[in-house]
């Protein structure tokens, strides 16, 4: 384990930035998002959740898949090039790091999504342990330890010191690159902080949720539950939950006619939208209840059925913070998750 | 042409023949620009067809893989992409990617079986691929019955092939029906599900059914009434799709993605899914 003073963070980013792009939680106009770092930016490592999650690193909100042109009976097609620029993502929280596992199961399963795979391959994750979880946090429910995130390099901030521990080959390579700024350290302070934070998490408002009753086996019973009506009745279908969610990965593929050809682009989409499943001959989900149910059944039942019981939620709490109607997955888990949630 | 390969990036195809089958169905022959087929497929598999600036949509491949020269798509005009396809002329290039999805189990579960095909309207498109595959590998299958119905005589797709080719092959019976009486039609008049029941098939057959959802539903119910089990029945489904490879999320029903785990399903497998299709 190594350490450096947080006064040297800009030097650290500048050194990494010599041959990589660096993204970090940066405040602009009062909101913290992962932006490309430069020395003028206001880095906010104290911010817990960025507004949008980290999924956009590898699955951008919009990206061009290929360009094509129709002239009379002829068509030209030109594929977009893969992203091959090394990029370091700094300050990713444990929940968002875990979301990459969920996204990997979708995009890296056969047939591999080469757009996602290229960005993932060239990305190095520097995660950051949480020292002050929010009331909306419940990552522990999914086996995530906020004090010990995954990642290529894991960091902790204790007081004015940033502790640095590399965990993978990529992390080792990054460590070598910034070695001149790091000094050897023991883990006494880190351990102490971890113990304190774990105590805070154990007392957090959402610490005792239970997923008993969810998973692939409970499909029929949960799908047919009469509780969906009350759970979904206030849903506006705005899709905010899906856009801020780190694991929501439904997408659309559309055409943008630039006047000089057509860009075939992919963009985030939402199963909460009324036209998501609409086609020329009909729509198999016509009510908001059906769409709302689909989102949560997918996260808590269908996805686990296909992925060894892993849920498609990481407990980041963004949906609790952002839904204009105060609907969220915690309410669903409490309502449908059996006696332990009473 | 393309530097990068991805399942989302299409290949070029050329429309080399267009046949009008009914007032709203045309069959398009597609070749690779250099001739031959754009890719190989198995009966029941699909392809995404797209036009720059118009959109992309999923279609079943109606030709049999035993056709080594070209692929065919029978397409009903009913939305943006299909409207555009219907106004094309021969020589038009289109974008095509596939094959997508699972095929009918022609080399496994269907082998050696007596087969009953039930189709309504444009629902013949995926089944025509299987029927011609079975005809070209005749020794591998038992008897073949084809029940095909449409709104009117003009709406029967591939009528010529059925009457002139299929009907003349030993062991193949074609049963045609239309919804309402009309002048010049001396064949059967009934809705497909009723006709299937009236024909009173023996239950030693494996059934492949495709058509409007309501037709499939009543056909299966009728077959069950005369003793068929749901594990003897296969169908193929149509839902909104964008990626075609189980990632974009649109065609997700329960733990299945219709594009990837289907579109061909055995009916008892469908019964295990939430009723959202």
How far is it from the N-terminal to the C-terminal residue of chain A, by CA? 43 Å
CATH architecture descriptor text of the largest domain in chain B: 3-Layer(aba) Sandwich
Shape call of chain B: globular
Major sheet summary line of chain A: 9 strands, mixed
Shape estimate of chain A: globular
| Helix fraction bin of chain B | 10-25%
CATH class of the largest domain in chain B equals: Alpha Beta
CATH topology of the largest domain in chain B: Rossmann fold
Q: Which percent range describes the beta-strand content of chain B? A: 25-35%
Unreliable residue stretches of chain B: none
Beta-strand share of residues of chain A = 15-25%
Give the helix tally of chain B: 7
Mean pLDDT of chain A: 94
How would you name the oligomeric state of the polypeptide chains in this document? heterodimer
The strand order across the widest sheet of chain B is 10-9-8-7-11-12-15
| Total strands of chain B | 15
**Overall pLDDT confidence of chain B:** 94
Structural features:
heterodimer, A: 342 residues, alpha+beta, 9-stranded mixed beta sheet, 4-stranded antiparallel beta sheet, 11 helices, B: 277 residues, alpha/beta, Elongation Factor Tu (Ef-tu), domain 3, Rossmann fold, 2 domains, 7-stranded mixed beta sheet, 6-stranded antiparallel beta sheet, 31% strand
Folded structure, characterized:
The complex is a heterodimer of chains A (342) and B (277). Chain A is α+β, with helices and mostly antiparallel strands and 342 residues long. In chain A, 30% of the residues lie in helices and 23% in strands. Chain A has 2 domains: 2-203, no CATH class; 216-341, no CATH class. Chain A is built from 11 helices and 15 strands. In chain B, the strands form 3 sheets. Chain B has a 7-stranded mixed beta sheet with strand order 10-9-8-7-11-12-15, sandwiched between helices. A 6-stranded antiparallel beta sheet of chain B has the order 4-3-6-1-2-5, with helices on one face. Chain B is 20% helix and 31% strand. Chain B is globular and about 55 Å long. Chain B is α/β, with parallel strands linked by helices and 277 residues long. The N and C termini of chain B lie far apart (39 Å). Chain B has 2 domains: 11-99, Elongation Factor Tu (Ef-tu), domain 3 (Beta Barrel), CATH 2.40.30.10; 114-271, Nucleotide-binding domain of ferredoxin-NADP reductase (FNR) module (Rossmann fold). The model of chain B has no long low-confidence stretch (mean pLDDT 94). Chains A and B meet through strand 5, strand 6, helix 6, strand 12 and strand 13 of A and strand 4, strand 6 and strand 13 of B.
